Amino acid sequence: MTSMFEHQGAAFVRALLDPEAPPPAGLKAWHGGHVSKRFAVYRNNVVTGLIAALEQRFSVCLRLVGEEFFREMAQSYVRASLPTSPMLSEYGVDFADFVSAFEPARGLPYLSDVARLEWAIGRAYHAADAAPMPINAIKRIPADTLGGAIIRLHPSVQLLSSRFPVLSIWTTNSFDETVRVVNFDAAEDTLVVRPHLGVAAYRLPTGGYALMKALAQGATLSAACAAAADIDLPACLQLLLSSGAIAAVDVRPRT
Fold it and tell me: In angstroms, rounded to a whole number, what is the distance separating the alpha carbons of residues 223 and 119?
């Protein structure tokens, strides 16, 4: 049975999302002022604050489409999806899915994957701290045991596979004074990791996404390599080592 408080809360949320709706019943202004005007100010502040949070989290998407377009899109998202957590850093988890279905953005099919990359970067930034395994310690592991080893990835590792060059789009719009021309026919898979203080994003070599996805799911190195078609194994292993994406290596005892 729905409680009175749940019913009142649902009514409050509906009024908060609908600018044409009257204030929920029972509201009073502390100084005896006009409730409708006070609630309209509150409603506007909530929506404006959430849009600002999305602008900060998806700054490259904002740059790609412009401020006016992004705010219209973000406002539509806010109307459809209020936060479910008090942590504002967790708001926008399904923004990329919303962008992919947002009709005015259909002419920018890469935009939702750029949003997914920006969300992955945010997740990596807020992930648990952990020291990456030193390269020298990894190199001391006997080579004949590596195939059966479980490589545990750093808790900040995020993986993204896209049919668009999302990392190149993100990089040039984040760091270049003049945006470079990007080949939109080139697919890119991306590794995002924060082994120390800063987040870094790397383009994965051939087979790298399948390899690291399998490793993240607990596969042995041999099984992960088998799951990756046409893998450039030397390049993948080099990236694993140099990026700090390895947190530990569990080696099975030799029999």
Answer: 29
